[in-house]
Structure to design on (1096 residues):
């Protein structure tokens, strides 16, 4: 009886400590995220001193985010010899770097949390936002917009290039939702959704989508091809504050809602019926997870292009260190996804100045080997 | 026989290059000497009103624009250029690079601290322009449409000159380029043959595109009296090379970029490409390789490019091939003139013009001669002032006979032939 | 604890195959109902209908006089626990974490000391406490089954539905499992268990339902259901039904299956020494 009691106490200690361990880990990740963001904001083709970056950033925040796009703030176009460059630098940091870094963070967080939620909800560790058709659906939407030459600007009697990009983004978002729910609908059979069928149908849709994109590049002219290639490899080069404002609510929605479903996602690992026996409405849970994932990924892809591997690798990376409990994996993947994407984008835009490497290439370049390494290590860990 | 043909091609090439070197304008800095006061506000190709405060620091995102800026004498004002800015040569070694016209990013442009940024409608991504505007850097978009055809360089020049506040110099450059384009057209006007041609773009092993309507290549091919078989096959813009379409098109000449040939691993590799191998162009060695920016840049050298292309695809256009350049000729004033090349030729009067044209040269009546051109003048004309202005002037006797004119132009044989023909008539 | 599971005229078919035809049964707190029958008889389908995983085309299952689908999933999870035939976990959870999942229907916010105590106890009872730090995926089949049992016990429900809980277990753990069920039944829990081992059913079940071709052929006490006749009809196997030497229950011994029936006395003296002819259980008459 005494032995039993002490065993019980030991275990209880371990598990009651979990929340504080969780909070500590998240705090560490948060500090890394802030550090990475500041490094990213202080680095670029234009050389700006770090203390200046800090001062400008603090100013920007204390300005209560009075940052408006093309607002005619007192930015000097250029810094003349012998004069302070602070105004030019302020413009650059506020209008170019911060939105870019924040967007990279949002997209990284979106892809990572979507990947985590999908892997949990579909009980498939290989589930990836790209797998359920969200990414390729978005791609099809954007490519269609490019091919048809649809432009909101035509409706609004404006030919601002930003409107063309916004049109493409809306097409991408809409197509991502349609594709994902189409895949989801097809996978439903007799009132249930079969995960294997879902993944296989997603695969088929992806194949069709890439064929469509391939076809599109073949029949379009060189300028469109250029657009399509640029877009399908992903980039954060064209981000403005207005884009951040569009993506932010969608990412926030996932980041806020999904952690509440963490324990239910844990139960899903037992299997759909078992989760249901434990009180989980598996069908609804999956609908919420897939819906949120499609939405955040669709929006991300619409603004940043197709960026692979983040949604797949980040959840694995975190589980490797923390174990599979979604209560820690979900928030940690949000932060880690953001950190990695910001770092990847920093590398992408500084490694080959004056050109930029497409971000999709960077993530695949690093994500692939990391994924392989994780597989090898986890196998070895199991003995 | 074959080697002789090849030799002829080489000679043509050399001639074309000589032409190019000769007719390009010498640089002289005329920045701001028009006295225009900044700021200037202009409406650019996208309809935006752009206010330019200063042109002290110009960044150019496209090679064709760089060429025009330099030709207008603002080469020293350039603080950043894209990697397609290969002309004037050596610019890329001296001036910081800001990326590539089709893959621009905002920071490298901002890093060179420009007071104004130039690019064309086809520069991408277009959102970089918005980002630059957000930094209060004026962005001037130069037209790059497919509707203007071979006139496109003229539109570009006018817009760049306006933005730089030198409309007069712009007009001078514009008329020079217009005239060169016109020469190319007239030089092929009487040639009946219409060689079939095709532009092939190659990047590495996997990307091979054929051009059709709505491309600079199409406009250039039409200008030199050729038939663009890509367009004839129904291609709009660029399409991937298909062996069947290629065989069907049956081009006698294939135009390629030097960059394309290099990336494919040399001309021999290009000739082996499926579809290309079986064309008359590949079999007869008629793959014409040019510098990318020169041949299709649609900028200050487009007329020269057309002429160079015409010389290659019209074997009957051999009038300059029988002449060895340079040659020296002592004219009636006793001055020894060194003639680098015989075209274009400006004649001082109608009679002289007729004879020069009969001898197979492309000539115009002396009006506003272009820098570097050759003038043939009769003794009673105001040849001295032309000579003072720096032109090569061959002076012949008033009422000079055909042999004298033919001798001055270093084609005595052709003179005799012309005489004989006239006698026969 | 009022717990009453009532199935009325259940019928379930997939395509043209009718897996369950017109089955009615009730189970109340304090008893163990064993479901037996040959492979493909519809035992698991019946259990899934009782659990609410499947919905019958006609007939309905009521829990405490309310149709099953009127209960919310979480409410249902506090009423009944289900132990599946095999349980896999798609991520690397530890044994303890898997068992702790059984507490989900009871946890509001974060798990309490009480939750941990219950899980520890369940692991202890199923003799898997020593495995608690191990990855569930690395356990043997029998260990997994016991941990799953611990998870089901931790759910602390008045109704337990078990699908072949003993099939992967060694002999001792088979009996351990059934003893746990008996203990639970004693506290008022209603247990429905699909079993393969007729003797296990005979020893521990209060009632046995014998299913054949989707129909409930016989239901009643072990003595009523487990007769040589019934077993021969349903399983197609000749058996001798004897009296258990120590428990008051039938003991089924299969006879040779090579086509001819043999009596025990013919098989061997050593067996016959204990199992005397006069101790044979007389066959109960057919319920219908």
């Amino acid at each position: 009886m005494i032995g039993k009691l002490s065993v019980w106490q030991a275990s209880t200690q371990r598990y009651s400590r979990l929340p504080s361990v969780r909070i500590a880990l998240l705090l560490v990740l948060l500090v890394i995220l802030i550090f990475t963001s500041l490094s990213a904001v202080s680095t670029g083709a234009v050389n700006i001193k770090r203390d200046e970056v800090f001062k400008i950033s603090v100013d920007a925040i204390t300005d209560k985010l009075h940052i408006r796009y093309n607002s005619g703030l007192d930015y000097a176009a250029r810094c003349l010899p012998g004069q302070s460059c602070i105004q030019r630098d302020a413009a650059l940091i506020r209008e170019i770097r911060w939105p870019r870094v924040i967007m990279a963070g949002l997209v990284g967080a979106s892809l990572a949390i979507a990947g985590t939620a999908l892997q949990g909800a579909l009980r498939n560790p290989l589930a990836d936002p790209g797998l359920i058709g969200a990414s390729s659906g978005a791609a099809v939407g954007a490519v269609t917009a490019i091919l048809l030459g649809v432009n909101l600007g035509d409706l609004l009697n404006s030919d601002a290039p930003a409107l063309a990009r916004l049109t493409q983004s809306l097409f991408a978002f809409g197509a991502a939702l349609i594709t994902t729910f189409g895949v989801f609908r097809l996978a439903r059979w007799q009132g249930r959704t079969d995960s294997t069928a879902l993944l296989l149908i997603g695969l088929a849709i992806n194949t069709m989508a890439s064929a469509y994109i391939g076809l599109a590049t073949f029949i379009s002219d060189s300028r469109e091809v250029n657009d399509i290639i640029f877009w399908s490899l992903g980039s954060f080069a064209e981000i403005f504050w207005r884009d951040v404002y569009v993506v932010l609510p969608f990412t926030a929605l996932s980041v806020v809602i999904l952690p509440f479903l963490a324990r239910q996602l844990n139960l899903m690992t037992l299997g759909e019926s078992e989760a249901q026996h434990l009180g989980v409405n598996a069908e609804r849970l999956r609908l919420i997870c897939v819906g949120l994932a499609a939405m955040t990924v669709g929006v991300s892809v619409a603004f940043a292009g197709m960026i692979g591997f983040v949604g797949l690798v980040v959840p694995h990376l975190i589980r490797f260190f923390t174990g599979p409990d979604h209560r820690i994996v979900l928030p940690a993947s949000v932060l880690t996804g953001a950190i990695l994407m910001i770092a990847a984008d920093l590398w992408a835009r500084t490694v080959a100045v004056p050109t930029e490497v497409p971000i999709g290439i960077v993530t695949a370049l690093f994500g692939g080997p990391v994924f392989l390494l994780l597989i090898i290590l986890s196998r070895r860990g199991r003995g | 026989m074959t080697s002789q043909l090849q030799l002829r091609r080489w000679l043509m090439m050399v001639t074309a290059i000589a032409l190019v070197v000769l007719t390009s304008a010498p640089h002289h800095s005329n920045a701001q000497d028009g006295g225009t006061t900044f700021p200037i506000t202009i409406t650019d190709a996208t309809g935006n009103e752009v206010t330019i405060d200063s042109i002290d620091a110009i960044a150019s995102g496209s090679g064709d624009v760089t060429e025009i800026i330099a030709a207008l004498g603002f080469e020293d004002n350039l603080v950043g250029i894209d990697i397609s800015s290969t002309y004037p040569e050596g610019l890329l070694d001296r001036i910081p690079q800001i990326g590539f016209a089709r893959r621009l990013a905002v920071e490298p442009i901002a890093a060179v601290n420009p007071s104004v940024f130039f690019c064309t409608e086809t520069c991408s991504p277009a959102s970089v322009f918005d980002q630059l505007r957000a930094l209060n850097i004026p962005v001037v978009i130069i037209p790059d449409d497919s509707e203007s055809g071979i006139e496109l360089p003229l539109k570009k020049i006018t817009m760049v000159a306006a933005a730089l506040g030198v409309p007069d110099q712009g007009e001078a450059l514009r008329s020079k380029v217009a005239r060169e384009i016109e020469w190319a057209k007239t030089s092929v006007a009487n040639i009946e043959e219409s060689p079939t041609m095709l532009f092939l773009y190659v990047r590495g092993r996997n990307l091979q595109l054929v051009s059709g309507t709505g491309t600079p290549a199409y406009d250039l091919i039409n200008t030199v009296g050729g038939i663009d078989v890509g367009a004839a096959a129904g291609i709009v813009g660029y399409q991937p090379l298909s062996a069947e379409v290629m065989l069907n098109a049956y081009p006698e000449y294939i135009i390629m970029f030097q960059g394309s040939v290099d990336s494919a691993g040399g001309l021999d590799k290009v000739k082996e490409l499926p579809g290309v191998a079986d064309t008359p162009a590949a079999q007869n060695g008629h793959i014409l390789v040019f510098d990318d920016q020169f041949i299709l840049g649609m900028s200050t050298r487009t007329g020269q490019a057309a002429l160079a292309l015409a010389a290659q695809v019209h074997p009957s256009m051999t009038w300059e091939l029988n002449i060895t350049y340079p040659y020296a000729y002592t004219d009636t004033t006793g001055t020894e003139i060194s003639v680098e090349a015989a075209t274009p030729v400006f004649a001082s009067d109608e009679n002289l013009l007729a004879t020069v044209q009969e001898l197979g040269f492309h000539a115009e009546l002396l009006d506003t001669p272009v820098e570097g051109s050759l003038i043939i003048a009769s003794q009673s004309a105001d040849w001295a002032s032309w000579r003072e202005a720096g032109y090569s002037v061959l002076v012949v006797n008033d009422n000079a006979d055909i042999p004298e004119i033919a001798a001055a132009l270093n084609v005595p044989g052709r003179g005799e032939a012309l005489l004989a023909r006239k006698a026969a008539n | 604890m009022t717990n009453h599971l009532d199935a009325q005229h259940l019928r379930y078919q997939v395509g043209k195959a009718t897996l369950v035809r017109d089955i009615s049964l009730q189970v109340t707190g304090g008893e163990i109902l064993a479901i037996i029958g040959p492979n493909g008889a519809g035992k698991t389908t019946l259990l899934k209908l009782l659990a609410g995983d499947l919905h019958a085309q006609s007939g309905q299952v009521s829990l405490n006089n309310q149709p099953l689908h009127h209960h919310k999933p979480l409410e249902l999870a506090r009423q009944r626990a289900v132990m599946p035939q095999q349980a896999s976990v798609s991520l690397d959870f530890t044994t303890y974490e898997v068992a702790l999942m059984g507490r989900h229907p009871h946890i509001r916010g974060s798990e309490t000391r009480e939750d941990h105590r219950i899980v520890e106890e369940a692991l202890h009872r199923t003799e898997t406490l020593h495995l608690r730090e191990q990855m569930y995926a690395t356990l043997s089949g029998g260990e997994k089954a016991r941990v799953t049992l611990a998870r089901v016990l931790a759910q602390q429900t008045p109704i337990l539905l078990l699908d072949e809980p003993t099939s992967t277990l060694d002999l001792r753990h088979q009996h351990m499992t059934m003893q746990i069920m008996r203990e639970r039944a004693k506290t008022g829990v209603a247990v429905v268990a699909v079993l393969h081992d007729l003797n296990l059913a005979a020893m521990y079940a209060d009632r046995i339902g014998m299913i054949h071709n989707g129909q409930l052929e016989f239901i009643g006490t072990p003595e009523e259901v487990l007769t040589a006749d019934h077993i021969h009809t349903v399983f197609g196997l000749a058996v001798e039904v004897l009296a258990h030497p120590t428990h008051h229950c039938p003991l089924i011994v299969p006879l040779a299956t090579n086509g001819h029936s043999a009596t025990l006395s013919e098989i061997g003296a050593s067996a016959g020494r204990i199992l005397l002819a006069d101790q044979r259980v007389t066959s109960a008459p057919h319920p219908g």
About this structure: The two ends of chain A are 34 Å apart (CA to CA). Confidence is low (pLDDT under 50) at residues 1-17, 67-73 of chain A.
